Amino acid sequence: MEQKKKTIYCDNAATTRVLPEIAAEVTEILTSSYGNPSGLHSVSREAKEILASSRKRIADVLGCEANEIYFTGGGSEGDNWAIKGACEALSKKGKHIITSKIEHPAVLNTLKALKKQGFEITYLDVYENGIVRVEDLENAMRDDTILVCIMMANNEIGTVQPIKELAAAAKKRGALFFTDAVQAVGHIDVDLRDLGVDMLSFSGHKIHAPKGIGALYIKNGTRIGNLIDGGGQERKKRGGTENVAGAAALARAVEYMCAGEGKAKREEILNIRNTLIDKLLSIPYTRLNGDREKRLPGNLNISFEFIEGESLIMWLDIMGVCASTGSACSTASLDPSHVLLAIGLPHEIAHGSLRLTLDVENTMEQTEEIYAIVKNAVERLRMMSPLYEKVLKGE
Side-chain half-sphere of 208: how many Cα atoms within 13 Å? Predict the structure, then answer.
């Protein structure tokens, strides 16, 4: 029997492997502490205690009050709730919202839906480095601006935004500030006591907890409507029986990635990333997308001229490297990534992007193998390109 090639997983921005200790805790709760937290008997009380403890553990790490953490089904739900809830509560004050051109589809499509309801959206530029400028936000603010939505870290190019300064600019004009921190929590420091945001969403499966669990931080005193009406769960703000095992897993993951072993490995991940960037940029006709320094420790997004990103991803998969591309490889659209277009890449270069996202389970030893596989794939794919053939001929 042919031995299966060992996989090098470099797609952690898409999802992470659930850590064995977190999986074990989830299994234990699902089989032993299986009660409905809203019940009155002992099994339900045990589940309720786990839920309360999980909420407090998360709050302690992120620097907020336990009653400011609301459990959700994931990042997209948190984004929808924050944005739609704020607009519902503040629509009488105004209908102007400000965001950036590189937000996640969970934000952009939510805003698109609100535009149909009469809300006006302003999209801020991010320039070549992928960073929103505070002065652009200040200039875009109006008396009827009710909400500013700017992600903390981009899921494609990894750029980290100056959220504290942006939030202060929004607050100065009386608008709420929401940040999608799905890619940030667990990978960079997040201190809600210092950040100054009104709402912040994050998701478990980006930090080694299971899919289907996330949380939305809502600062005390912030008034937003409900997204899910139902029973009295989550202090009557989010209906539906709570995912107790998921909440415990999220708490464990937040502790691990924000304050424990995961945080301790950030410098190592950064060194691996920088080594890999230098190696890949040695391949001719390549460029790094996004700011070199103001980016997530494990993110690198590189464009290779004269190839299609989809073909590159498929080749890498055959060779045992799991990665992704910024172009729309999983849809019928032929358009490249909106993020890469927003930083000024022409279509033909944006189509040839490769995103590698590293995490605690990647090692420095893998960099040479990843580089060799990518280099080989790029060279082979370019040999099929008529445009590259012209370059070789000096035409």
Answer: 24
